[in-house]
Amino acid sequence: MEFEDNSVLALLSGEHNQHLAHIEKTLDVTLDSFGNSIKISGSGKASKTARAVIEDLYRRIAGGKHVDIDKSMVDDALRWAVNGHQAEAVTAGESFETWKKKIVAKTKGQNDYLKLLRSNEVVFGLGPAGTGKTYMAVARAVEALKKREVERIILSRPAVEAGERLGFLPGDMKEKVDPYLRPLYDALYDMMPADKVDRMLASGEIEIAPLAFMRGRTLTAAHVIIDEAQ
After folding, report:
1. End-to-end Cα, the chain, rounded Å
2. Quick one: fold of 6-82?
């Protein structure tokens, strides 16, 4: 397989060819990359699937203006190819602007999700773990706050354990519930400077609270995210 744009091929291959290695391991093929070409070795069906995955990823990256690629994007292309389909390229350029970086859709599902988040007042996001439901929702909230479309962000999720008994936690109410809310903090700190997050948490422009405390609240001019709402 030969490609016109070496920079796209480099993104496709990943650092130290990690994405090609993942495709090799998943499909039991051998991929040799040199220059602007990739040689595929393996059984007929596996080689055909590997070619479809590589062509799909190349098209997605080129169409998305050289967006970064990660393992989830490779897995998405593998899933489509193994099922005998070809994933649609993300060419619409759906993205959210945050203080630290631009959040870009990496799969068609994420692209559709971003469009819905931007064009609807209420969105229900359903999907497997690790598909970006919470992360993309927080990105939209941060963008809305940055553009002053809203006055504050309220992030909430149930303070429940995931199959383990942690027992009684020390500290005040905030210290007790913070461990359950870490996924929301992680997303915020990934999109905003730490000092800005801390300042907005202190001023109330960003509020993170357990779902149990949300009953009866008045949420004027706020972007509200309820995580793990099932």
Report:
1. 46
2. Ribosomal Protein S8; Chain: A, domain 1 (3.30.1370)
